[in-house]
Amino acid sequence: MKSIVIAIDGPAASGKGTLARRLAGAFNLPYLDTGLLYRAVARRVLDHGADPADAEAATEQARTLNRVDLERDDLRTKEVDLAASAVASIAPVRAALLDFQRDFAQVSGAVLDGRDIGTIVFPKADVKLFITASLDVRAERRFAERKAQGVATTLEAVRADLAARDEADRTRAAAPLRPARDAHRLDTSTLDADHAFAAAAALVNQALSKG
Ligand code: CDP
Ligand code: CDP
Name one GO molecular function term (predicted). Predict the structure, then answer.
């Protein structure tokens, strides 16, 4: 199979990761969850007792990030959600993470998901998808995940956290969350993961057949 880059962007809990993993499996491509990079930087800043909004501290952690930092199992907490969004608004943090993301796809192509893959990281990606779902649906999904993890929270609290993070991601100056001009938009509000995959796979096949 030709090595291609598939860029998947969208707000939190829209189903990007689930879709990206399935496309990577089906098209035999490596997969990178770029949110993990920002989460790992945030985790390290918090571990150092620094403020995630402190540009100097966050940039230092981004520049010295290691692959093993991405394998930690404490990157998906509520505290890290918000801290990740804070460090992600700092332009030098984003710049420090660019090469890693681009190098990842160098040899065999890749599927990457995040907020700025189709706009900034891979503006010439072979296929760009922008995944959305209503805030209520996304809150239900993330709440169900948190409940399954045994986290004590409420649907209202999860919805408020998602809304705050989306707003911050959309309105920041550095690489704001927005669809690339040539992105295919996919609203998964009423699509389960199988149907979302089928729709996305059809778009990828179309792009492959055009060469
Ligand atoms: O899994 P979820 O969609 O909740 O979040 P994530 O993809 O792990 O991303 C966590 C945070 O990292 C986001 O709220 C963004 O602020 C930031 N991020 C980003 O700015 N750019 C990316 N390419 C990926 C994540
Ligand atoms: O990566 P992102 O934060 O955008 O979302 P995710 O972690 O892939 O998906 C959040 C939750 O929604 C997961 O529990 C999925 O099983 C579920 N879901 C989905 O991913 N896609 C759908 N079309 C419907 C539900």
Answer: kinase activity
